[in-house]
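seq/struct pair 1
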Amino acid sequence: MKNTIAIGVTDLSFHRVTASLVTHVLTDMGFEVTRHYAPHQDNFAQIKSGSVDMLSSAWLPSSHGIYKEDVETVQSLLELGLHYEPYALWGVPDYVPEQAVSQVSDLLKPDVIAKMAHDIQGINPGAGISRFSKEMMEAYGLSNAGYRFHTGSEEDCFGTFERAVAEQKWVVVPLWKPQFLHYKYLIREIQEPKGLLGIVDRAVLLLREDRAHLFTSEQLDQLDNLRFSNEIIAALDYQVCREGKALDEVTRAWLDAQV
């Protein structure tokens, strides 16, 4: 009888891509795999409670470190692999002149305020980029200047950006790498010298230490040796989200091409 492995997956497209890659690897090892999709905090709550065995992917230490610390008050976790090296950013379309907007404080320039969309559309409130963005709104006085930060769905965020680009409007997008918009669009990161966007994280697979016995040492080594990249995940994410291809077929084809 096959061992069943339950993976908690943060329910965002690029996390689904990475979890799909991991699922294929586990399936090839002989496991039966179930995926459980949930927002950031709920995903970590599931691994804390033991309703899932592992989590894909944790961004450490900046974005998800506080959630990992909470889990480890009751259960030690193993960090496996380096799926990619993510980081949060605020960006503008490349047609916004760099001399006009090169850093966050430039958003306060009167001529920029006159041109820039005042609504800054983010994703769900538990995401690191959402927490960071709320801090930036206050730290830079952007709310007082008339800007408004909103949380919402992935498509709220991405669709707002794509519609603005289609009309060549000035817009700020709270984003991160890897994300499929970078595959198609030139998005210039704007500097944030206060350090409120965190640092470059490590995206890793978390495994409850009390479930490690389900794996051989060779299997744990294989999981620990998984290496993808920001560019690979963004490209696969684009195929799924904008080309309409089936997630597991896209990731299987990529893995098979690496052999």
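seq/struct pair 2
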Amino acid sequence: MPESSPQRHHAIDYVEFTVTDLQQAKRFYAEAFGWQFNDYGPEYAGIRSPQGESAPEVGGLRVDQEVRAGGPLVLLYSSDLDKSVQAVQGAGGQVVNGPYEFPGGRRFQFTDPSGNELGVWAEL
């Protein structure tokens, strides 16, 4: 009998962000959201799952010369949107849209120090 896999068929399994400065990106995401990392050298860090070190990584930070705008918008969930806004700004991110209401919640979008745009949402 095959072992049970934590991955789900056709589910998003890993999100990788391009960053221009790995140390700055790690500091930003750690300060703003409490993220922790597995270091794999000077140009890559895996994003640890919030479920603990035994859980698979949920993404990574990869160094490149530039960050290209556009592409999919990654949304994070927050139990306190206003505190998340303050944390993003306090860590050096820039709110570029919102906070605003949408059916069922509120959200804002921000850019990190490398220029990646993400969103954060909360239920009403």
